[in-house]
Amino acid sequence: MEQLNNDICYQALKTRDRRFDGRFYTAVLTTGIFCRPICPAVTPKRVNVEFYPSAESAIAHGFRPCLRCRPEAAPGSPASAGVHATVARAVRLIDQGMLETGSIAGLADRLGVGDRHLRRIFKEHTGVTPQDHAKARRLLRARQLIVDSNLSMTDIADIAGFGSLRRFNDAMKKAYGQAPTAFRRGMKSPPLAGIKKDDPCARRDDDLVLRLRARQPFDANYLLAFFRARAIPGLESVGDRTYVRGFRIGGLIGLMICRFPNDNSGVEVILRGPARGAVLEIGSRVRRLFDLDADVPSITAQFANDPLLAPLIDKRPGLRVPGCWDQFELAIRAVLGQQVSVAAARTLAGRLVQGYGDALPDDLTENTGVTHVFPQPETLLGLDLIGIGLTRRRAQTVSDVIDMFAAPDCEQKSGDALITEMTAIKGIGPWTLNYFGLRGLGDPDAFPAADLGILKASAMGGGPDKAKALETLSERWRPWRAYAAQYLWSALEGEG
Length: 496
Prior knowledge:
Elements: H1 6-15, E1 25-28, E2 33-35, E3 49-52, H2 55-60, E4 64-65, H3 78-81, H4 85-95, H5 98-101, H6 104-111, H7 115-126, H8 130-148, H9 153-159, H10 165-176, E5 208-213, H11 220-230, E6 236-238, E7 242-249, E8 252-259, E9 266-272, H12 279-289, H13 296-301, H14 310-315, H15 327-336, H16 342-356, H17 362-365, H18 377-380, H19 392-406, H20 415-423, H21 430-440, H22 452-460, H23 467-473, H24 481-490
Parallel strand pairs: 2-4
Antiparallel strand pairs: 1-2, 1-3, 5-9, 6-7, 7-8, 8-9
Helix pairs in contact: 4-8, 6-7, 9-10, 15-19, 15-21, 20-21, 22-24
């Protein structure tokens, strides 16, 4: 897809092209309001609009979010996420509340750069300063929780970071021109189509509900099939249109039910248990788990004329790269999956969960098929894991991974640092590193060229059947080789 300029943005605005949703925002000079390109309002004249790369940038320039198209609900924009790795990490840390109690200098130290450099590259890639981004995100988070969750206003004010209900009300009135309660008048929670009241995945009255939209096109069926084949017994359960798992955040446990509507518009997340209060972090994790924000048309445009990939894209235009809920969990999965079948890896992981994961209360999980959360690295330290069916060498590799993630500073390490440490562990090779990069780190260019399934799919399509040759061929797919890998894996559907 072409690089955006004002002419392309205005053309997309006139046609309400959904492929551009979240990639830019239109500010109308005559009204002081900004919109998504899919807004149903009458298209303003060209001379009366300005374009911004992110909602935060539009807010920082004094424009108010549109109440009809809801910019806060747009899929994550590449501009806001930042094409620069440091900016991407900064955005994530700010969204996690880093500037609520800290400073720009502290954020820069966390990222390993100077604060002046951070301010410069942040504004270059997002159009706003880190402080303005944080303020705008607070407003957008609050508006999203008002409309897309069933939280009380007091809870929303606290979770969004306003500190008090009065401050929350004042900020929302100033930003939107209305009191927060006005956004919920007349709203009804949509029913879960196809789910009966006695179904364990049905919404309960006291459940917390969050609705997340996906950038289109979105192939939920493929994602569910992928997770269904790899679901760890006791930890995960995957139905026709549901993904259920136990989880832990900040020492608290919970149950998550993800329901995918038939129109593939996104996912409805139902949360139970004490950990559900971390709803913003949960929302961010779910977006990464299901790759909801991928700009697939832009990515696949690079593959459009590729003889190996083009037929696969035509079959599944909305394919995503499945992510992970937790990096430690994914690292263990990857090591357990080395040189064994998917089914064997599931069995080994299931034994680990059943043997060492904390059990979830029956009132949270009744009849869902989920019973435990994944064990924490600290719980597994020093254990002899041969008993779950591992060879002594594989058990040692798993133990070394556990030691690495149990280190006190592990959560502060960058993806590159994690890969470097994993590379030094005996028994971890290129396949495991690339698989962890692809799913655990969300690296869009990770490519496990030695994967037997990928090699088989390549040969089926007339491509190389040797890892070295496929690695060379994959250079033309950069920087989106993770998506190329996923398309190749998709070619094996129905294969024995």
